[in-house]
Amino acid sequence: MHPLRLAPRPLAAGLVALVVVISIAGGGLDASQLPDVPIPTDRDLLRDPPFDRLTLIDGTVLFVDPVSPRPLPDKEAIRAAEAKEDPPFERVGGLLVSKAPDLKRDPSENAIVIRTQDEEPKDYYVKITSIQRADYFEDILLSDALRRANSSDFDRAFELVLAVQTRDADWRGLRETADRIALLEGRDALTKGRVDEGLRLLGELYKRSPEYPGLPKLLAEGYSGRIKSAFDQGAFATGRRVLSELRSLAPESPEAAQMEQRFITRARRLAEQADDLTGPDRVERLAQALRIWSDDEEIARQYEEAFRQAPVLDVAVIDVSRRPGPFVECPADGRVIRLLYLPILADTTEAATLGDRPDQLAAELTSGDIGRRLNLRIKEGFSWNDDSRAIGAADVARALADRALPSTIGFDARWADLLSRVTILGEREVEVTLRRAPLDPAGWLLIPVGPAHAGRDGLVWTPDGPRPIGSGPFVLGPLTPRTARLDRAEVSSSGTIPIARVEERRFSPEADPVAALLRGEVSLLESVPLARLEELGRDPEIRVGRYRSPRMHWIAIDGRNAVLRNRSLRRGLSFAVDRVELLQERVLRRPLETSTVPSDGPFPVGSFADASDVAPLGHDPLLAKMLVRAAKQEMELDEIELTLAYPAIPAARAVVPGLVEAFAEAGVKVTPAERPQSDLEGELRRGGRFDLAYRAAPVDDPIRDAGPVLCPGYLAPTSSDGLGAIASPRILQLLLGLEQVQDLPTARDQVIALDREARDELPILPLWQLQEHYAWRTRLTGPAEEADALYEGIESWTIEPWFEPDER
């Protein structure tokens, strides 16, 4: 029988005390020794009670409560002292045992009390020199942490190290183990492609232990690989940032010098190419060079000089045009079309009809035959931007006739119903004959005019291929899904140098155009999310303006889907929407404002078309469920599933998840689908089918805009059945009746009736009207604090050169 089981610790002085001899290497182990510590497989090191493992000189292994002191005294020193005293111990098996009265000093000296972790724990006096090996709980934790790290289980490894730190923050080997695990985790992250995470971990280790074995080489290789990857992908700002981090960690690193030279070489090569370019092209090439390496003072000087001669304006927009030509298919087209093509009439005012507006082609508009015949006289002095010829009656006649041909891009079904014929009376005179007298003839002539010699797509064949040829102050350059370029058509003769090029950029959903404006990456922002107005207002380098007309937001409904023709369902969807909560919490993130409020119909609040007796649309989740359930019973359906298409604009992104959730609670499953705004609006206006579609637009003239607001395909060809999208026969009747009205009082009454009927018929789901804003950096001079359109007055804008420096 083992001697330990013969002699339990006495409870009174004078009884036999068992003393066990131990061999120990001192305190905690360093990281290189940790793998030699055996790890118990039957214990949870973080949940089970802590323990030490003692191996006796006869090979017996004991699991005991943590011993004290920690670590134990050096065994060699104890043996030397005992050799001098020659204590009366006798050997029993693998132990040295003596009776307490025979000891020459206190029995606790050079001995410890241990408590076994058996089913029945027992206490013993144990001579330190009678123990072959002591594995401390801290060392076992560290050893297991390192084993876990070698198996890429870094979360568990971190927990084990943290447990040691909690027990004794100064335990020998703790820091070395933590550093080793950091090295392993950093290397693992680099190997698995998580480069930024790996470099962060290795960088933190470098700050603690710059000479850690293998770290400088691994760090340099990791940073060099990250820089090279960013460089090859064109992410030069990221590459420079990583290079700066490497420089701060290892200023003399040869890898840093090599990577820096790659940036410098590429930038200077582009700067050399810029020597062969002029105007905005030279500015853009030098800007590319600075985007690669912004610290080159000579390139920066050349850039500033070139920029002052040909200023370039970078603009962050919601979306870019998809197609060149004199057509307005989407909001992006409407934003730039006046810069590219002059309209017949600039607006419907008397000054325009008399030809007093300089930004239009018409010299005069007169009418006869009780308003059924319009005579247009065209101004002299306007030519196409390719200098091919002057703009004349043939161009205007072609623009008017094409709008009545279903095969053309700019087809307008309502104009086709109205137009009888277009006659050219001379080089500068056109006669338009109509089937009936329209309410506002000038309202039909606010269209851009392209060359008569262009193709059906609006492009003119040139030696360089088909190109859009316009008459405005700018010409359209290359288009991509994310960028559009507009170049000034001719140099201004004024003393100031105007904007020579406009570069529009659509940012990806993951990017942040507001941050781009704050950084200076762009100088003009088309649309500011309302929740971030205060943020921009605090920046002294930013100015914020607002659009004069509020933007109406609503959900269009496609009545060609038989399910959506059910009025109970439309009412249920409307009652499901908490307009106030969504607007305040998700769009504004502040209380409601005077010009930003929930809407109860298709027209702006406070306009003449906003019927005063229409009650606000309510939110009643219980009633919404009841109406949806009634609709399902009426149509004998178990489930209703719809798709909600929405544009990639800030307000829609903010509220669509809430709308989907509200509809689901009412009993309708709605699947959201984000689309670029230009793609979505272009498809809707061509009469494309949908279920639900989030839309936003200003409603400047309720009489003229009522049809396109209530029916996305109102102007689409008959073959698309665009009018079939109107879910309510009553609303369709009122719209068609509005087309026949010939006096303003009756038209106003008809529009008010539309607003009143839309409250209950719900051909659309009104949401809210927003007072939207644009913003620009102060280096851009010219934008007004209030405007109808983004580029209003751009002919006189100026901008100072500037380039975004790297953060230091």
TrEMBL record:
Which residue ranges does the record assign to the Solute-binding protein family domain? 361-696
Q: What is this protein called?
A: Bacterial extracellular solute-binding protein, family 5 Middle
Q: Tell me which family the UniProt entry assigns to this protein.
A: Belongs to the bacterial solute-binding protein 5 family.
**PANTHER family, per database record:** PERIPLASMIC BINDING COMPONENT OF ABC TRANSPORTER (PTHR30290), PERIPLASMIC OLIGOPEPTIDE-BINDING PROTEIN-RELATED (PTHR30290:SF10)
Gene Ontology molecular function: any one: peptide transmembrane transporter activity
Organism in which the protein naturally occurs: Tautonia plasticadhaerens
Q: Which Gene3D superfamilies match?
A: Dipeptide-binding Protein, Domain 3 (3.10.105.10), Periplasmic binding protein-like II (3.40.190.10)
Q: Name one GO biological process term.
A: peptide transport
- Keywords, ordered alphabetically: Signal, Transport
Q: Where in the cell is it found?
A: Cell envelope
In terms of one coarse class, where is the protein primarily found? other
Task: Work out whether the entry's keyword set contains Transport.
Answer: yes
For this UniProt entry, what's an example GO CC term? cell envelope
Sorted alphabetically, which SUPFAM superfamilies does this protein's record hold? Periplasmic binding protein-like II (SSF53850)
